[in-house]
Structure formats: C-alpha cells, structure tokens
Amino acid sequence: MSVDLVYNRDYAQVMKNKTGFIFLATLLIAFNGMVNAGFYKSVDENGNIVYSDTPTPGAEQLKPPPISTVPARTPPKPEASEADKAADTEQTEKKPPTRYSKFSIVTPKNDDTIWDNNGSVPVTLQLEPALDTENGHTVWVYVDGFAEVKRSQSLNQPLSGIDRGTHKIRAEIRDTQRKTLKRTKTITVHLKRASALRPAGGP
Questions:
Q1: pLDDT (tens digit, 9 = 90+) per residue, 91-132?
Q2: Is 68 a domain residue?
Q3: Among 101, 116, 139, 181, which is least packed by CB within 10 angstroms?
Q4: Closest listed residue to residue 29, CA positions, set 68, 1, 60, 2
Q5: Same structural domain for residues 46 and 123?
C-alpha cells in the first residue's frame, strides 16, 4: 500500500516551528523501519510537497537519520552464599561409598550355648575395610528377623533382654537410604538361664 503525505506550502510556516520539526523527525523514524520500501520527496503539479513510499519521476529519495540504540546490559550473576559454596565443596570432596570385602560375627560362635539370667548376648563384629561413617553407613543387628540394633556405628553390640531359647542372629551394613550394602552369615545361639537348684553347667 502506498503512503502519501501532502505538504501544502500554505503550511510552511507551521512546519518551521518546533512542533513541525518533531512531527517530521517522527515520520522519518517510522519510515526507517520499512526495509523493502524507500521514502521519497517530490513536488506535485500544484506545487505541493509530497512524501511517499512510491517513487515518482523527479522524486528525491530521503535517508532517515539512524536510530540510536543502547545495548541491553546483562545482569550480573548473583554470587553463591557461603552455605552454597560449602555444600558444593563438600559434595566435590566427598569420597565414593566404601565397598566392603569382609563382614562377619566373631562372637558368639554359631551354635553356641549362652547361660545368662538377664538374657544378655554380647555380639562382636568384624568389618573390612572400616565402617564408612562419612557416607552415613551404619550397623544393624537382627535377632529372629527383628532389628534389635539400628543405625549404630559400633562393632560391639551387647544385646540384652533376649528370651531363653534358640535364636538366629545376623548383622547388616546399611546406607542412608536403608539399602543393605553387606550382611553377615546368620548364626544360631541357644540362650539358657541358670536355675538356683541346678547351677549352669551342672549335671
């Protein structure tokens, strides 16, 4: 579509003032965005000045003034807090979880008979390599399938309150997600309580 603006000489004085200059500058800037269309100035047969995007014989092609632009500033990246830096450092320096090669119950031995009126069963464990407490590994001890010891970091577990009779004991190493990393063989122990009429070990 052709855009024609007729400028009559009768309004020459008006265009000379400040308002007319601003209008013309705005017009030129608007036409600066037309990439494929030119901007022309000509005088018609009645002596009127015509601005158009369609060239006519004898028309003068105008060049709008360049539009000043200011590049957008990239906001600075916020600095990480000390807590975030410490967490990143800890994550970077944290060693991979330990893979255990050996885990066993040293005492009691399998099929041992224990005499104790308080139901005490001292359990001693052997673990290689050492328990990885840095990655949150813990010791769990089970008696007859129930966890008597949870989230311990000790390899010596003095169980107490165990009922007389035959019991099965095992131990496990677990991570923070309660995943079993290593378990011992299950052993069987027999807990007996001494009688006042019949001492322990007597005939």
A1: 556 678 899 999 999 999 999 999 999 899 999 999 999 999
A2: no
A3: 101
A4: 68
A5: no
